[in-house]
Amino acid sequence: MATSEIQHTALTLHDQLPILQVAIPLLAAPLCVLVGQRHAAWWIAFISSFAAFVISCLLLVQVTDGSYISYEIGGWAPPLGIEYRVDALNAFMLFLVSGIATLILPFASASIGQEVPERNHTLLYSCFLLCLTGLLGVLITGDAFNVFVFLEISSLSTYVLVAQGAYRDKRALTAAYDYLIMGTIGATFFVIGLGFLYMATGTLNMADIAARIAEQGDNRTVRAAFAFILVGMGLKVAIYPLHHWLPNAYTFAPSAITAFLAATATKVAIYVWLRFMFGVFRPDFLFDVYTLQFIILPFGLIAMFAASFVAIFQRDFKRMLAYSSIAQIGYMLLGIGLISATGLTATISHLFNHGITKAALFMGVGALVFYSGSSFYDRLEGRGRTMPWTSAAIVIGGLSLIGVPGTAGFVSKWVLVQAAFEKGWWPIAALIVASSLLAVIYVWRVIETLYLTAPAEGAARREAPLPMLIPLWIAALSCIYFGFDGVFVVDIARTAAEGLLTSPTPLPLLEGN
Amino acid sequence: MWEFIVGHLNYWLFCVLMMTGLYIVVARGNLVKKIVGLNIFQTAVFMLYISMGKIAGGTAPIFPTDMNVDPNVVYSNPLPHVLILTAIVVGIATTSLGLALVVRIREEYDTIEEEDILHIERDIVTAENQSHGGAMGGRA
Amino acid sequence: MRHHLILRVIVKLLVSTMILYALYVQFHGDYSPGGGFQAGVIMAVAFIIYGIVFGLRKVHAVLPPWLVHKLVALGVLVYGGTGVVNMLQGYEFLNYGSLTPHHPEHGQHWGILAVEAGVGITVTGVMIAIYYAFAARPPRMSDEEW
C-alpha cells in the first residue's frame, strides 16, 4: 500500500450544513432512548428539530438565486458516492418540514401527554425524530436509492406513531396496519422502479441518471421504471384512487402526530414525484410520449370533487380534515398536470401553504379534543364561546383552506388559476373555483358547530394550555402573513419550478465503465 | 423462443414471485398471511436486484489481501447486493413491525381475520352514529 | 423444567461457540464476507436460543430488556459518532480518511471497524429486542392446555 499524502482543506461548519440537517435529528433519536427520561427526551427532540430548522434557513438563503449546494458523503465523489444536493426546491421543503416539526413539538408535549401513556413518551419522541430524519433525508439526498432508504425510515416510524393512537381508539391499530401494507407495497414498487432505472443506466445519482436517460432516449426499461415509480410514490402521495389508507390513519393517530403527518408526509412524497418526473426522467418525454397529463389531470380533478363531497358528509372534524387533505392533493396534481412553470409554481406554493394551513387546523382539532375528548361535531358544539382563542385560530385555518383572499390558501390557488388561464383551459379554472365552494360548505359546518350552537350545560370557559395555543397561533398567523406577503413563497416556488424545468447540470460522466 | 424463455429466467421467476406475493396480500383475509405475502413480494424484488448484478463467469467481488488484482478475473457487480442488503433490513423491520401490530390487534379485537375485524369496526361506527346522532347523513 | 436434557446440554455448549463465531464474523468482515449485520444476527441468535431453551427469565437475568434498548441506541450513536469525529477533523461526514490524515487507507480500516462495531451492537440489540417483545407477551393458553 502506497503512502499517499493528500492535501486537504478542512471543511468549515458552513460546508457541513447539508449533512448536519439530517445527522442532528438522526443522532438525537438514539440519544433520547439512551437518556430514557421523557422530559429530557422532549428537550432533545425540540432542540434538535430547532437546530434543523435553523440549518434549513441557512441553506435556503444560499440557494434562492437558483444555484445548488453539493455535499459528498464520506468524501466519495458523485456519481459513485452518495451526494446531498440542495437546490431551491428541496431547501424550501426542508424549511417547511423542519419548521413544522419545531412548531408541533411544544404542542405535542401537552397533547401527547394526555393521549399516550407516559411510559411511551421517550420512545415516541425518538420515533418522531426518526420520522423527521427520514423526511429531511428524502428531501436533501441526490441519490435515488438513498431516497428509498430514508423514505422507509420515515414510513416505519410513521406506522409506529399512528399506532400510538390505540390508547384512545383501538382502530388506530388497524389503521396503522393498513397503512403499513399499503405503504410497503408502495415503497417496494418504488424500489422495483429504481432497479429498472439502475439496469438502464448503471448509476443511482439522480443527475447522472437524468443525463444518461437523455443520452439513450426512450426504451422499455425506462418506461417500466417510470410506471413503477409513479404508482409506488402515488400510494404515498395518496392520489385519489390510492388514498384508502389516509383517512383512518389521520383520524386515529394522536392529534400532534396527525398535524405533523398531514403537513409533511404527503408533501414530501409529492416532492419525490416532482423530482423524478422533472429531475430524473425527461418531462417532455413523459408528457408527450406517455401522455401523463391525461392521467394526472383527471385524477387531480376527481380528487378535488369526490374527496370534498365525502368531507362534507363527515361528522368527525378530524376525519373531515383528512378527506379535505386528499382533495387538496388534487390541486397539487392539477398544477403538475398543467406542465408549465406557473403550474409547478402553484403546486410548490400550495405544498407550502397547505402544509401550514393543515398544521394549524389539525392542531386546532387537537386543542379541542384536549377537553372534549373526541372530535365529533356534537361534542364540539359551542366551543367558540368556551374556547375562543382556539376556535378563532381554527376559523383562520378554515378560511385559508377555502382560499379566501388575504390567506395563504388564496395565493397558491390564485397562481393555479393563472396557470390554467395561461394554457387557455378556462374550464379547469372554473372547476377550481367550484371545488373551493365545496370547501366553503365543509368549513362552514365547523364554524356553525363552534359558534352558532349553544355550549353544553355548565361548560366553563376553559382555554387550551399555552404550549398548545402558541404553536397553533403561530401557524394561524403565518397563514395570514403568507396570504398578504405571498411574494416570498411564490418567488421561491418559481425559482424551484424553473430549476425543475431546466435540465439539471450533468455531472462529469465517468469514462467507460 | 426457447432462448427467450430461458434467457429471461430470472425475470420470469421475479414476475411469478411478485404476483404470488401481491395476490396473497390482496386475497387473504388473515392478517399474518398478508404479512407473509408482503414478504414474498419483497423477496421477489431482492431476486430482481441480485440477478441484476450477476456477470457470467464473475466471481465474488473480494480483492485479495495483497491487492494484486488479476486483470483477467471477472468480478460480479457488488452494488446491487449492497443495495439489497439495505432493502432486506428494511423488510425485516417491516415484518416485525407488522407482526407486532397483529399481536396488538389480536389483543384488542380478539381475532386476526380481516372480515371479523371489519365487522367489529362496522359495529363501532354504527354505535358512534347513534350516539353522535346529528341531522346529517353519511358515516362517521 | 428438568426435561429436554440433551437440548440443554447442547445449547450450553453452542452458546459460547456462537458468540465466538459472531465475534469472528464481526472482526474478519474487512477481509471476508461478514460484518456487523451478520455478526449481530449470530450474536442475537445465541441469546435467543438460550432464551428459548432456558426460559425468558434466565435470559432476562443475563441481558435485561432495558439494557437491550440502550444497546440499540448505542450502536447507532457509535456509527453516527464516527461520522461526527470525521466532521470535527474537518472532513466530510463518514470520511474515514480523517482518522489518519497521512495515510487515508489506514483511517478507512479504523473507520470501517468502528462503524461495523456500531452496526453489530445495534443489530444484536434489535434482534433480541424483537424476540423479547414477542416472547414477553402473555400467551393465550398455557402449554398444558394444548
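qc> The mean pLDDT of chain C is 89.
qc> done
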